[in-house]
Amino acid sequence: MKTGLVMEGGAMRGLFTCGILDVFLENGITFDGAIGVSAGAAFGCNFKSKQIGRGIRYNVKYCKDERYCSIKSLIKTGDLFGVDFCYRRIPFELDPWDGETFRNNPMDFYVVCADAKTGMPVYHKCDRGDAIDVQWFRASASLPGVSRIVRIDGKELLDGGMCDAVPLDYFRSIGYEKNVVILTQPEEYRKGKNKLLPFLRLKLINYPNMVHALATRHNRYNAQIAHINELGKKLPKEVLILKPKAPLNVGGIVREPERLISAYNAGREVGLENLERVKEFLKD
Fold it and tell me: Can you name the residues that pair with 34 across neighbouring β-strands?
């Protein structure tokens, strides 16, 4: 029975996921495959490369750096998160991502992107451990309106969370029968309609299918979360859900290291509290 790890995105809420993943790494918990969306991909890659603490470390170190994330970067380049700094300098110079360990780890690692032309999800297995994989992580985390479209393999890609925020059904469809799902919103959260939709309609005027996906995202997301929660109740031996106990006080741009650390520690707390439960779940 193949075991899977499914990781939601959520910008800096992804540090909650980092906390759980570090607890898993510290306790030797492994999976046959993992799939990440947006921050779940950009931070989750550290799980396959077995780099405990890397996700929280570089976010805390560079959260005040305009090269990392700033309105200035958005105005100058079209990307809120500076592409050269985030996807070249940090992973290959300043806080190196261990691509060799990533490549040699037998756990498969998938990312989800949104096809800007079709408005449909694109699922891609990253197994190279190189700059091309990093561009797939970037594409998966490229939020419409504050990121440029990423072009890879003839596709025009944006944030995968716009199309399939928590790809549990996809993972089940390709043979992962027993899945741990990490959500980054608490039980009571319900997504509302995107308030920036008029702006996004103009920004993406040549991508009507992507605009439609954005306009309907809140309904699909809420239905997807309800479906996943129902699976967790009906199939407790196949789906185990971990989520924050309360809202995480982090959004898109976070300059305060203590808020990032708080989200990370909230993940560690949930990971430690559920450690034996996860071990028992995976044991069979």
Answer: 5, 109
Residue pLDDT tens, the chain, 284 long: 999 999 999 999 999 999 999 999 999 999 999 999 999 999 999 999 999 999 999 999 999 999 999 999 999 999 999 999 999 999 999 999 999 999 999 999 999 999 999 999 999 999 999 999 999 999 999 999 999 999 999 999 999 999 999 999 999 999 999 999 999 999 999 999 999 999 999 999 999 999 999 999 999 999 999 999 999 999 999 999 999 999 998 977 788 999 999 999 999 999 999 999 999 999 97
For 28, residues 6+ apart whose C-beta sits below 8 A from its C-beta are none
CA atoms within 13 A on the CB side of 30: 9
Of residues 210, 235, 104, the one with CA closest to residue 155: 210
Q: Are 113 and 140 in contact (CB under 8 A)?
A: yes
The first and second tokens of residue 125, run together, are 């297995």
DSSP of 62-109, one letter per residue? HTT-TTTB-HHHHHHHS-SB-HHIIIIIIIIIIS---HHHHHH--SEE
